[in-house]
Please model this.
Amino acid sequence: MSTEHMQASLAQPYLDGLVHHQIRFQSCTTCGRAQTFAHDACEHCGAERLEWKTSSGRGRVHAVTVVSRAPSDAFRALAPYTLVVVEMQEGARVMGHAAAGVRIGEPVVASYFDHLGQNLIRFEKLTP
Ligand SMILES: [Zn+2]
Model:
């Protein structure tokens, strides 16, 4: 099996989650920690017993990037746009779109939108 194929199938539960407007992540049944990228083993303790869980959709902005030049034709119509990395409440980090002006540390909640047939995440500011 090729590496590419492995990675595609490992990420499939995450992609399936987006279709259902859910953020899914791998959680280790040994140490209980969440990991950001799907893997065969836990990135924290190396155990190979991982299960998929669904996030609450809430987290805090960890990093913000404004993309002025879209990487592909599919995203050109959206540019400029804001991408964020959000640390979910459960500990996994997830990348998504966000409204312009979001700042690091702000609480956000995931919403979803369809762009040319792709399910994408957009994090909205969580108003207290
Ligand atoms: Zn672990």
The chain has a mean pLDDT of 91. Residues 56-128 form a domain with the OB fold (Dihydrolipoamide Acetyltransferase, E2P) fold (CATH 2.40.50). The pocket of zinc ion is lined by residues 28, 30-31, 33, 42, 44-45, 47 (CB under 6 Å). Helices lie at 3-19, 73-76.
